């Protein structure tokens, strides 16, 4: 079976007064019907990697790759029209900041209903019904009330779930979720992850899960890529993340506070210049 | 330092909206925090944690009950209150004005409160949060997320408050930067005897930073406990036990066993 997504030697750079800044430097991976985690410190290129798949990059970004294909479609050469059609129907993208990706002057329920209508042949009443069902699925209490709220009237964690609902309602084949649960309390997070888990297991959706939360990725995903300075420095089976060998991955794991641990001072990373290329 | 830094909240109630859109966001919340103590608030998303902090910071005017900081009634709008309690927001990207330099961001509270000697105070605050003088004239887009959060903490320190209200101060940050910010908050608390009210959904962060915590659900406090009891895994309430279980990592069977508590 050919993988759903294939990426080879992905590069993203930005022009700066002192020459190009290479933010993503040769990332390669393929994705099947599985849960792939991407972890790494802030600025390591996780979001840019996720956004590159839909070529949704800042205007001044230069993107290149030896290969970038989704289910047989070459995303590098595809016209913007094709990408726009894929986005929000076959490929969902939950952006890191929900408040910026929601339309501030439109009720959140209408935004989800609109996403449902992309499927075509869905009446306004049916779209509303699906939007309400999806709000309920992501454990929003009181979906009827929340349907009518504007983005500034929802809490941080509600905004994230509204984004997830909007992306799931068209039933995508690939979901790229960038820190999708960082503002959720742990019980709701677990329930939302169970929905994603079931979509992967039952419908064969492919999932790219970008997160800072190493423990969560390790327990939720199948595989993990660890990024540093635009490169993948280590790839592991998720369950085996604690056995990581790269000093950077080990440093990240050690900086986590733990419930049963009374250290007053947490170790922070001391970065080794050699990690950029090793 | 201003005031003794105690915080008391009695029967706090907050409603939003009207008619069918009405929501009783905070329902009869009471707790008190001793001077120099660090108190955590955890609980379900939408349970009213941020709203409680916003009331204490004077950002929400419409509420019932009593709330005092250092003995001053929060409802009075006393001009001394902002000098006693300051809030740090969850999102370091949204909370700094994009077109103001760090210098202007930090000097502004001084100007508003007619405090002189701005230049020296700005330098000191930057130093306190581990940023060198080289950061003073930068704009937010020239700072990393962790650096922005340091600036936000520095801004909160400008008026030398005795209480810090921290709303998810590290949830937008990576784990190494989180460790830096938690170490910084620890040090500030030790050096200045600050009282802290910390909202976080990360129980390990709460255990690391706090002495006691309250667990909220649907606008009410369901349980108050010492962090030591949390460490021993001894919560009384079913909701807290569920929270503790969920914080151990993803498990499909555990997810299926989760129930809603009303
Ligand atoms: N428009 C831009 N112009 C210049 N540099 C940029 C731009 N957008 C991103 N970058 C840089 O590219 C690098 C990678 O950014 P990216 O957003 O992918 O990081 P990330 O791993 O998602 O970090 P975080 O965990 O903080 O979200 C960073 O150093 C960032 O500063
Ligand atoms: N300005 C507002 N208008 C209407 N409703 C509001 C407003 N602010 C908050 N609410 C509602 O009050 C409730 C509590 O919100 P709050 O932001 O305090 O929750 P929270 O516990 O901080 O949640 P989270 O963990 O997701 O940040 C939610 O139901 C929210 O929709
Ligand atoms: Mg990112
Ligand atoms: Mg909140």
Pair of chains with the largest interface and how many residues each contributes = A-B, 57 and 56 residues
Looking at the structure, the CATH topology of the domain at 1-77 and 213-278 in chain A is Rossmann fold
- β-strand percent of chain A reads 15-25%
Task: Report the oligomer.
Answer: heterodimer
Query: Helix tally of chain B?
Result: 10
Enumerate the spans of chain A where pLDDT stays under 50 for 5 or more consecutive residues.
none
Order of helices and strands of chain A: EEEHEEEHEHHHHHEHEHEEH
Number of domains of chain B: 1
Question: How many strand elements of chain A?
Answer: 11
Give the strand content of chain B.
15-25%
- Unreliable residue runs of chain B: none
Identify the CATH class of the domain at 1-77 and 213-278 in chain A: Alpha Beta
The CATH homologous superfamily of the domain at 1-77 and 213-278 in chain A is named: P-loop containing nucleotide triphosphate hydrolases
Task: Tell me, rounded to a whole number, the average pLDDT of chain B.
Answer: 91
Kindly state the mean pLDDT of chain A as a whole number?
Answer: 92
Report Rg of chain A: 19 Å
What does this structure look like?
The complex is a heterodimer of chains A (about 280) and B (about 260). By secondary structure, chain A is an alpha/beta fold. Chain A has helices spanning about 45-50, 80-85, 100, 110-115, 125-135, 145, 155-170, 185-205, 215-220, 245-255, and strands at about 5-15, 20-30, 35-40, 60-65, 65-70, 75, 90-95, 175-180, 205-210, 225-230, 230-235. The longest helix of chain A has 18 residues, at about 185-205. The radius of gyration of chain A is 19 Å and the shape is globular. Chain B starts with 6 loop residues before the first strand and ends in a 5-residue tail after the last helix. In chain B, β1 and β2 form a beta hairpin. In chain B, about 45% of the residues are buried. Chain B is an alpha/beta fold and about 260 residues long. In chain B, the strands form two sheets. A six-stranded mixed β-sheet of chain B has the order 6-7-8-3-9-10, with helices on both faces. Chains A and B meet through α7, α8 and α9 of A and α6, α7, α9 and α10 of B. The structure holds adenosine-5'-triphosphate (ATP) (2 copies) and magnesium ion (2 copies). The site of one magnesium ion has 2 residues of chain A, from loops.
């Amino acid at each position: 079976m050919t993988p759903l997504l294939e990426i080879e030697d992905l590069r993203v750079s930005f022009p700066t007064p002192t020459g190009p800044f290479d933010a993503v430097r040769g990332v390669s991976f393929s994705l099947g019907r599985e849960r792939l985690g991407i972890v790494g410190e802030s600025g390591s290129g996780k979001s840019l990697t996720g956004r590159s798949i839909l070529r949704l990059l800042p205007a001044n970004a230069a993107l290149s790759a030896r290969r970038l294909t989704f289910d047989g479609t070459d995303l590098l050469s595809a016209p913007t029209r094709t990408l726009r059609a894929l986005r929000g129907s076959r490929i969902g993208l939950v952006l890191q900041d929900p408040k910026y990706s929601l339309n501030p002057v439109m009720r959140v329920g209408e935004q989800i209903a609109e996403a449902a209508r992309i499927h075509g042949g869905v009446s306004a009443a049916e779209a509303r019904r699906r939007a309400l069902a999806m709000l309920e699925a992501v454990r929003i209490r009181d979906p009827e009330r929340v349907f009518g709220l504007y983005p500034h009237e929802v809490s941080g964690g509600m905004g994230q779930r509204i984004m997830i609902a909007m992306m799931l309602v068209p039933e995508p084949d690939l979901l790229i979720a960038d820190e999708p649960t960082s503002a959720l309390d742990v019980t709701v997070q677990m329930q939302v992850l169970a929905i994603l888990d079931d979509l992967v297991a039952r419908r064969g959706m492919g999932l790219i899960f970008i997160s800072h939360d190493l423990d969560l990725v390790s327990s939720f995903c199948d595989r993990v890529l660890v990024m540093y300075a635009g490169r993948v420095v280590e790839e592991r089976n998720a369950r085996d993340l604690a056995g990581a060998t790269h000093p950077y991955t080990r440093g990240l794991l050690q900086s986590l506070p733990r419930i049963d641990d009374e250290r007053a001072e947490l170790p922070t990373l001391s970065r080794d210049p050699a990690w950029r290329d090793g | 330092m201003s005031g003794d830094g105690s915080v008391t909240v009695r029967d706090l109630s907050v409603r939003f909206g009207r008619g069918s859109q009405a929501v009783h966001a905070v329902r009869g919340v009471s707790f008190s925090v001793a001077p120099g103590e660090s108190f955590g608030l955890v609980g379900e998303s939408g349970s009213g944690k941020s709203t409680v902090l916003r009331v204490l910071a004077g950002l929400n005017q419409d509420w019932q009950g009593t709330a005092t900081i250092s003995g001053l009634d929060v409802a009075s709008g006393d001009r001394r209150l902002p000098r006693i309690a300051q809030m740090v927001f969850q999102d370091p990207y949204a909370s700094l004005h994009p077109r103001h330099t760090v210098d202007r961001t930090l000097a502004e509270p001084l100007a508003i409160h007619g405090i002189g000697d701005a230049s020296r105070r700005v330098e000191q605050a930057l130093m306190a949060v581990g940023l060198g003088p080289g950061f003073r004239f930068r704009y937010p887009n020239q700072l990393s997320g962790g650096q922005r959060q340091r600036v936000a903490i520095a801004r909160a320190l400008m008026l030398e408050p005795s209480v810090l209200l921290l709303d998810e101060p590290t949830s937008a940050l990576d784990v190494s930067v989180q460790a830096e910010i938690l170490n910084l908050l620890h040090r500030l608390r030790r050096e200045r005897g600050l009282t802290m009210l910390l909202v976080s959904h990360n129980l390990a962060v709460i255990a690391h930073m706090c002495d006691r915590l309250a667990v909220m659900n649907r606008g009410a406090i369901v349980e108050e406990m010492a962090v030591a009891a949390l460490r021993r895994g001894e919560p009384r309430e079913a909701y807290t036990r569920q929270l503790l279980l969920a914080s151990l990592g993803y498990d499909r069977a555990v997810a299926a066993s989760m129930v809603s508590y009303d």
